[in-house]
Specification:
alpha/beta; eight-stranded mixed sheet; 16 strands
């Protein structure tokens, strides 16, 4: 059940969430949000607040009143997205081109709510590390915090995170053991051809025509090389070339993303992509430059840790409101970097029938706040029970 004290200050948590929503920052440029978090943590009387981890990340430390050596990390994200908000909410973004379209404002507010309760009660044995991470949206902020010694400096033994899910009812949680989110890789292909007047195409090595062929072949990688019982996605999201109607350009740029749940499949897709580009270069006597950037591995929930997270969620909302075999998704999360170093788990919290994540119409549902705060407090109580 939701903790009574959490209900008592729900209005404050909602106010924090809306203030965070109205003043978003992108990637590592979250100084305003980080300062808000720092001030709140200090006002709660946490034992230690450290800023500047992973450039603009913040960590708060709370020690329990009972003796214990274990340190459990709870992580929320600080950053927003480079989108122009299209909601009419009174708390909509005041910064053009920046928007909390993934609910990180809600995640941060829920972890702050948990910090307030835990700092006031301290009914646990050991230490809680509250991790407020920048640059989840494409900046590898989790890796940056790890590189700055996050896990070792604070002796974190386990790490957990929570993400909202549109389409899952408020008051429900979803989780699964094993792979929960995909690995994410990005690619940029540059076709360096030979331009000409558009009336004399025979004098060119047309990068647009070659690019069209490359895109067509890329779209066959999954359907013709990957076991249909294994999930993978390859999406071309950008094709840019030329400047006017009567000039065949010198080059074309193609960009996209690859999402996989299996490491072997991930390797196959990259190899096939490179082979297609080599073949196109030879066939058309052009140069095709390939940049393939691994972003993060699949997010893999630990077996025992999934059990702990599931039990905590059930204690808050009841067994019937926790889906413990929710389907994996092809989205990605750089929390994967933390799970590569420490055992832990990601859990989904329902955001109701809201617009999708990364939509300019999205907003976090404030009704979910007390469930999220109570989940964090309950998880700490179970993992640091002495």
């Amino acid at each position: 059940m939701v903790i009574d004290d959490v209900y008592a200050f729900q209005g404050e948590v909602e106010q924090w969430r809306r203030q965070l929503h109205s003043r978003p920052g992108i990637l590592y440029e979250v100084e305003e949000t980080a300062e808000f978090v720092r001030q709140k943590l200090e006002s709660f009387g946490v034992d230690q607040v450290v800023s500047g981890i992973g450039r603009t990340g913040v960590v708060g430390i709370i020690k329990g009143r009972h003796e214990g050596n274990k340190v459990v990390g709870l992580r929320a994200e600080l950053d927003a997205l480079p989108l122009s908000e299209m909601t009419n909410a009174p708390w909509r973004s005041i910064y053009p081109g920046k928007m909390h379209a993934c609910g990180h404002d809600g995640h941060t507010a829920m972890l702050l709510g948990a910090a307030r309760h835990l700092a006031a009660t301290r009914e646990f044995a050991g230490t809680v590390a509250l991790i407020f991470q920048p640059a989840e949206e494409g900046g590898k902020g989790a890796a940056a915090m790890i590189d700055d010694g996050l896990l070792e400096c604070f002796r974190i033994a386990e790490v957990y995170t929570m993400h909202n899910m549109p389409g899952l009812a408020v008051g429900k949680f979803g989780i699964r053991e094993g792979v929960v989110l995909a690995a994410s890789d990005n690619f940029r292909l540059t076709i360096n051809g030979r331009g000409s007047h558009a009336a004399e195409p025979h004098k060119s090595s047309d990068p647009i025509a070659i690019g069209v062929q490359v895109v067509s072949m890329l779209n066959s990688i999954i359907s013709r090389n990957i076991d249909p019982l294994k999930s993978a996605v390859l999406s071309v999201a950008k094709f840019h070339s030329g400047t006017t109607y009567n000039v065949i350009p010198e080059s074309a740029e193609i960009m996209g993303t690859v999402r996989t749940l299996d490491e072997e499949v991930r390797e196959v897709v990259e190899a096939k992509l490179r082979n297609i580009c080599k073949a196109a270069a030879v066939a058309h006597d052009v140069v095709v430059d390939v940049e393939f950037e691994p972003y993060c591995s699949a997010t893999i929930n630990g077996s025992e840790e999934t059990g702990y997270a599931t039990a905590a969620a059930r204690a808050v909302v009841g067994t019937e409101n926790v889906i413990d075999d929710i389907d994996p998704m092809m989205g990605a999360e750089d929390f994967a970097y933390m799970l590569e170093k420490r055992p832990g788990a990601l859990i989904w919290i329902g955001n109701g029938e809201s617009p999708a994540l990364h939509s300019p119409l999205y907003d976090f549902d404030d009704r979910a706040l007390p469930f999220g705060v109570s989940y964090w407090v309950t998880l700490v109580g179970s993992r640091l029970s002495g």
